[in-house]
Amino acid sequence: MRSIISATILLSAFTLQSALAGESVGTRDITIHSPARAKDLAVTVWYPSDGRGETVRVGENRIFEGAAALKNAAIQPEHLPLVILSHGSGSRGIGMAWVATALAEAGFLVVAPDHPGTTSGDSTPEDTPKIWERTDDISTIITSLTTDAKWSKTIDASRIGVLGFSLGGSTALELAGARADLDAYVQYCVDYATSMDCRWFSGGRGYKNDAPITVPKFDLRSVDKARFEQSNHDARIRTAVLVDPGLEVAFTKDSLRAIDIPLSFINLGSVGKIPVSVLSDQLARAVPHATYAQVDDADHFSFLPVCKPDAAEFLKSVGEIDPICEPAGPRDRRDIHAQLVKLIVDAFQTTLKASN
Predict the structure, then answer these.
(1) Any residues with CB less than 8 A from the CB of 228 and at least 6 apart, and which?
(2) Total-model pTM
């Protein structure tokens, strides 16, 4: 009974916090040029605001509920710690709006790019392993924001963190200093060919220009080995939170032991039910300054936004095979988000704000 009461209180507090966030969190859309990609990155920003602006619901669509914020409100105050979000494969930056607003409410400037090639409507098996492109996106954004005359006065460049989910977790881990081994990842997909991530490489479907396309089977051995295994460390990043990070089996022990910043690993699922592809307890043991937490009665899709009431049926009607909106267990997704918000905000409060 105590656990049910505690969960109810936590959910009520989170619902209240979400409602209030729309009154104080500002948001705006910007573009940042990527020389490596020879194109502009679409980027969404959230921040503490002056409370003046048009209320919008960021990330609202046919499937998901959005998160309230004030469009183009003024940023207040200056010299904020920066948290950059890296979305999972097949998602977008605005898919993390629910946690971005909570972080902005807590006093962080939050930035979320779309990673070309692994976003909703623009995602193929061939592009998915190109982790070096994603890390370059994040490093490019840091350089742009901290050197731009308009943004640099708003950001405390000595307090920068990254929050990554799934493939975004892999991105954040590599930025922290981890390096991956291609042979280990190839072997993992031999041993676990039916896992969700490896099935993606078996071919059949992909997405371009917001439409499904048919793609052949992708051979992981064709990935540029030198690029896949290179160091993507960015020393400007002082901490990272990694939720269900992908490529878990591919990171080398030596590189993990050499990471010298605090990392917070979070797994979605009860003990014994977390897929080996993202199970992070061993990663946390290998990193010298790491913590580990797991969220009971959740699954990998619990990190996605709250689904609208008829979303599950709609997804089935259009042939979606992943259980994006199916309940992971007895807990409401809002309740799971409430626990995640506390874990994530507390982690950044401890590792970034405490250093102020």
Answers:
(1) 129, 131, 132, 180, 182, 185
(2) 0.91
Tokens describing residue 191: 């041993």
Which pLDDT tens digits describe the chain residue by residue (356 residues)?
333 333 333 444 444 444 444 569 999 999 999 999 999 999 999 999 999 999 999 999 999 999 999 999 999 988 999 999 999 999 999 999 999 999 999 999 999 999 999 999 999 999 999 999 999 999 999 999 999 999 999 999 999 999 999 999 999 999 999 999 999 999 999 999 999 889 999 988 899 998 989 999 999 999 999 999 999 999 999 999 999 999 999 999 999 999 999 999 999 999 999 999 999 999 999 999 999 999 999 999 999 999 999 999 999 898 888 899 999 999 999 999 999 999 999 999 999 976 54
Report the C-alpha gap between 138 and 162 in whole angstroms.
Answer: 9
DSSP string, 188-222: HHHHTTTSHHHHHTT-S-EEETTEEE------GGG
Q: Is 120 helix (H, G, I), strand (E, B) or coil?
A: coil
CB-based contact 188:221 (threshold 8 Å): no
> Which residues is 341 bridged to in the sheet?
none
Residue 173 contacts by C-beta under 8 Å, 6 or more apart in sequence? 164, 240, 242, 245, 247, 251, 263, 283
